[in-house]
Amino acid sequence: MNTQGRKTHIDALGVEGGGAASAAAGTISGNRALMLEEPLIFEQDSPGTTGVDLPEPPAVKSRLGQVRERGRIGLPGLSEPEVIRHYTRLSQKNYAIDSGLYPLGSCTMKHNPRLNEKLARLPGFSDIHPLQPERTVQGALELIDTLAHWLKTLTGMPAVAMSPAAGAHGELCGMMSIRAAIEDRDGGTSQRRRVLVPESAHGTNPATAAACGFTVDAIPADATGRVDVEALKSKLGDDVAAIMLTNPNTCGLFERDIVEIAEAVHAAGAYFYCDGANFNAIVGRVRPADLGIDAMHINLHKTFSTPHGGGGPGSGPVVLSDALAKFVPLPYVVHGPDGFSLVESGADEDSTGKEFGRLKGFHGQMGMFVRALAYILSHGADGLRQVASDAVLNANYVMASLGDVMTPSFEGPCMHEALFDDRFLKGTGVTTLDFAKAMIDEGYHPMTMYFPLVVHGAFLIEPTETESKQSLDAFIRVMRGLAERAKSGDADHFLGAPRMTPRRRLDETGAARKPVLRWVPEVEQREAAE
């Protein structure tokens, strides 16, 4: 094992203590029982070793001109067992929803039913190509159309754009639809360039508005953690294009004045965009159309339980009101006497003539569509209603069980996530980050920290609807124990955490400012120095 090469890599990352992994683990091997120490795959390189045998290629004349191979391309040589062991050991270092409760607030990290995965792998869904002729993918187009129908039914909206690739992409779609509608209504001379965004909004909301050419005007929250309605009304004017509001909001609370807000926004000639990231808290119980919403994206991976994390794959369909239904992106599915087809341009017979253009290369994420429809059909109306009920029940159970040892940020019940702040840690010498690091040693991924920004030292906990009472009780016991330990004066326990991970606490500021993006072999470093 190349401990020296690994040590160099660890030190460069800024690990506290700077010692080799074996010293941190207290073992000769550097392993911690079944948590095996693992060097980089490049450090395990054995030139000439390979897991496959290929026949020697025949001699052919090079077609690369003067380009010649100058040396090894840098891919490591390993046998098949070494490759399998390497990636298996890496997988054991990852926390996953299949390992335990994943309390990341605002993320809805819930169990993914394996039935969804099985259906997504069916031939005809998993192996189709976006450039196939439409007549060869009629089943896939029908599935997209059927999913669109149920998304419209669940939201009460007349139209839906299926192509957005994720939630933020859906926001972009919704705001581009609003911009297109405003320009169409006002003849391209509109001065509506201001978008109102609550201070508790997801960070993508103001970023999306700015990307669409709007200026952002923040709306403060009131003492209950909801939008200050009077402050909102005072900012409305003939230059306001829209409001972007999340409901339930990022504090885990239902915006109880949402109908009044929608009426005020519409009276000012603006549109209401709703961030639907938290739709799983109200699905089957509340229809966004009944609240006065004009556009809302739905994160299929959050609401309908498709794979989440690692950058994708995601899917963010956008439902649209009558006022925006014509201003959709291309392409979209239509159903005629000859079957299903895609409207690809504004010149097509079934085009509305008002589409704002193409949002992405193809229609959307097919695997996500299959999984979402499987989830919807397997749950049914009563099951989806229970999804929302259980999400809210679990979050309130966590809040009620921790409210006496931690400090809830706002009074009263919450929706799908429980928000605490760091007032209970005052005078202990322990911060929100320290508390989170100690959770890792207890076998839990930390909750979302320091967000939303409207509360100090936030702990945003979302247990999701798929957790049992037993798993919640185990989590609550750990959180109570850590809170009591912090208050007892044992700050050192938190400042030294995590102790049981393959790596100790990083110098996170140093790692962010000077990241190590490329591993350099020890030999190469010595030769450069000489």
UniProtKB/TrEMBL annotation:
Q: Which top-level enzyme class is recorded in the Swiss-Prot or TrEMBL entry?
A: oxidoreductase
Oxidoreductase in keyword set: yes
Q: Where is the Glycine dehydrogenase C-terminal domain?
A: 390-485
What is this protein's function per UniProt? The glycine cleavage system catalyzes the degradation of glycine. The P protein binds the alpha-amino group of glycine through its pyridoxal phosphate cofactor; CO(2) is released and the remaining methylamine moiety is then transferred to the lipoamide cofactor of the H protein.
Enzyme Commission code: 1.4.4.2
SUPFAM superfamilies recorded: PLP-dependent transferases
Query: Pfam families this protein is in?
Result: Aminotran_5, GcvP2_C
The record's InterPro entries line, in alphabetical order, gives: Aminotrans_V_dom (IPR000192), GDC-P_C (IPR049316), GDC_P (IPR020581), PyrdxlP-dep_Trfase (IPR015424), PyrdxlP-dep_Trfase_major (IPR015421), PyrdxlP-dep_Trfase_small (IPR015422)
Matching entries from Gene3D superfamilies are given as: 6.20.440.10, Aspartate Aminotransferase, domain 1 (3.90.1150.10), Type I PLP-dependent aspartate aminotransferase-like (Major domain) (3.40.640.10)
Molecular-function GO terms, alphabetical: glycine dehydrogenase (decarboxylating) activity
The protein depicted here goes by the name glycine dehydrogenase (aminomethyl-transferring)
Domain Aminotransferase class V, chain residue ranges per copy: 191-309
What's the source species for this entry? Skermanella cutis
* Bilayer-crossing regions: none
Keywords on record: Oxidoreductase, Pyridoxal phosphate
Q: Which gene encodes it?
A: gcvPB
Keyword Methyltransferase: yes or no?
no
